[in-house]
Amino acid sequence: MTAKQQWGVVLGIIALLGSGAFAATHFMKDELTTVSVGSDAPGFSAKTLDATPRVKTLSDYRGDVVLLNLWATYCIPCRTEMPSMDSVFRDLGPKGLKVVAVSVDQAGFEEQIREFAREYKLSFEVLYDETGAIQSIYRSTGVPESFVIGRDGVIHKKWLGAEDWNSTGNRALLEQLLAEPKS
Predict the structure, then answer these.
(1) Quick one: which of 13, 130, 159, 164 has the fewest CB in 10 Å?
(2) Residues 6+ apart with CB under 8 A from 119
(3) Which CATH class is domain 42-179?
């Protein structure tokens, strides 16, 4: 093989790898991006647990400070953190904090989710994503997983596992975000 032919093969391989990388990033861009502090919160949809369920999306909370929590009824750490979420919501809800807990329980668990909310006397919004799509959208690695989203739609905190949302540090973050003007 001549040097010219060798260079042709090398350039052909480079072109093939480059087009493969371009195709992968173009068609798999959602799977390749991360959902982390500083990134825009991705949209989601989940339904209410009302007698006539309605679909709610992240757009419904545009301009609000949102504590988005992914959880499930079988999750023991979820049970641990729910009272602190409710407490911080009762204190900061009147200032504009929205707590949105999206259950990722399997299809048909509406009554178990309602019972969970009654048992813990939850005063914030509980939604249901029976498909679990929100876990993929937010690149969740388990439950509970929470995201603090500012008025600007940017994630300011991401937390995997149970958290004391009524702690001094979390309250300070939420109050700081609530003090920012609505856009």
Answers:
(1) 13
(2) none
(3) alpha beta
pLDDT tens string, the chain, 183 residues long: the values are 888 888 877 778 888 887 777 766 656 555 556 899 999 999 999 999 999 999 999 999 999 999 999 999 999 999 999 999 999 999 999 999 999 999 999 999 999 999 999 999 999 999 999 999 999 999 999 999 999 999 999 999 999 999 999 999 999 999 999 999 987
What is the spatial distance between Cα 115 and Cα 120, in angstroms, rounded to a whole number?
Answer: 9
CA 117 to CA 7: how far, in whole Å? 67
Which residue(s) pair with 154 in the sheet?
40
Q: Whole-angstrom Cα distance, residue 68 to residue 52?
A: 23
Contact 161, 70 (CB under 8 A): no
